[in-house]
Amino acid sequence: MSSALDHATIDEVAASIDDELIGMRRDIHRHPELAGEERRTSALVAERLRAAGLAVVTGVGGHGVVAVVDGAGDGPTVAYRADMDAVDDDELFDCAFSSQVPGAAHLCGHDLHTAIGVGTALVLARLREQLNGRVVFVFQPAEETCEGARAMIEDGVLERTAPREIYALHCAPLPVGMLAVGPGQAGQDGFRIELAGSDAADDAKRFAAMIDGLSTVGRPHAPEQVQRLMDDMQIPDGPLARFVFALSHVSSGDDGARVHAWLRAWPDSRYAEIRDEVRRSVGALPGARVEFTEQPFPAMVCSPELNATAATYLRGALGADAVMTLHAAYPFNGDDFADFLQQVPGAMFYLGVANPEAGIHGLPHSPDFGADERAIGVGVRAMAGFLSSRLDALV
Question: At a CB cut-off of 8 Å and minimum separation 6, what does 229 contact?
Fold first, then answer.
């Protein structure tokens, strides 16, 4: 028995739940929950997957949910992760299902990620008689604080399920109907400079300017700027092959001044270089000191081989022009899926959710983030088929 499912069969099953998944996404969107507070969302996920006959475990690493689709035949295990938490900000995008929770909104698309994860599990559950092996679905809390993946790993999710590969999707400012594969996403680092003396405020401004000057790329504020960045990301060894994006904030008080710094860089080796540069600058000023975070949070590095395999499959499933290959990371986003990829080979793919004609730019973490909901069906069809193809390839 082959575990590879044909596209027509997947499309037929996925089409039957499109409306249900859109409804689920809207429900989650109306009731966003911040990192570590995903009680309602996780209960909704667990209820729907149990109703489909899946084995479900809740409370993993906090409010994490793990569901298993067992195929009819023996075979390997692969995993799929979807994050569930919202962003601590207010929503500006005007829609009929806007956030009803002040200070919390799904501005990073995790509501779509959750709906796609549920939909993919439902499709594979209905087609399990044609599968050899097992697909483990990991619904993760607390991605926005970079705590949830590690908490689930420490709670034994990988030891208990032993996946050979793990995958994920993330919303991206690409046209709906498109997917992209890429090298990954940057990690992050941070530090605080403490200054004393009568010149502390002026010294703080000088250090802040130095930190801001580390940036090699500026955050985009218009669709055409986003497009230029996406174009640059498609260039091998292009302008984003190495980058730094740095932000600083100055605070002052009676006891002196402080500079708080936050940055993303690619590749990870840039963090050590920047730390050395900051230490030299701070060390040259008597009485100044710098305190770094214990370790930079690592970059999310996708497997080049599995990226290439995914691109080949997805082009066959969605069309040759529907899949983009990126050669650089987007400079302003990170993801704690990095923790999973340090344990298990895999990749994250980027799902187009933009529809400029409808005023939807699809840029995560923007207050006016919006998504074309047709992307949910695209994600479900793509991931159901791809995960099935990996079961077949790993036998």
Answer: 217, 220, 240, 330, 331
- Check for a shared fold between 7-185+299-394 and 189-292: no
Q: Give the C-alpha separation, 208 to 202, whole Å.
A: 10
Residue 136 makes CB contacts below 8 A (sequence gap 6+) with 66, 67, 68, 77, 78, 79, 80, 161, 163
47-106 pLDDT, tens digit per residue, is: 999 999 999 999 999 999 999 999 999 999 999 999 999 999 999 988 999 999 999 999
Q: What is the mean pLDDT of residues 279-300?
A: 95
Strands 289-292, 189-195: pairing is: antiparallel
Side-chain half-sphere exposure of 220, counting CA atoms within 13 A? 21
Cα–Cα nearest to 123, from 66, 182, 48: 48
CA 89 to chain CA mean position, Å: 18
Q: Cβ distance 337 to 348 under 8 Å? A: yes
Query: Which residues, 6+ apart, have CB-to-CB distance to 54 below 8 Å?
Result: 67, 68, 69, 121, 125, 137
What pLDDT sits at residue 90? 94
Q: Cα Rg for the chain, rounded, in angstroms?
A: 22
For domain 7-185+299-394, say whether CATH 3.40.109.10 is its number.
no
Q: What percent of the chain has pLDDT over 90?
A: 94
- For 189-292, the fitting CATH number among 3.20.20, 2.40.128, 3.30.70, 1.20.1050 is 3.30.70
Q: Name the residue ranges covered by the structural domains of the chain.
A: 7-185+299-394, 189-292
The Cβ of residue 324 has, within 10 Å, a number of other Cβ atoms equal to 19
Q: Which two tokens stand for residue 154?
A: 């420490």
| pTM score, whole prediction | 0.95
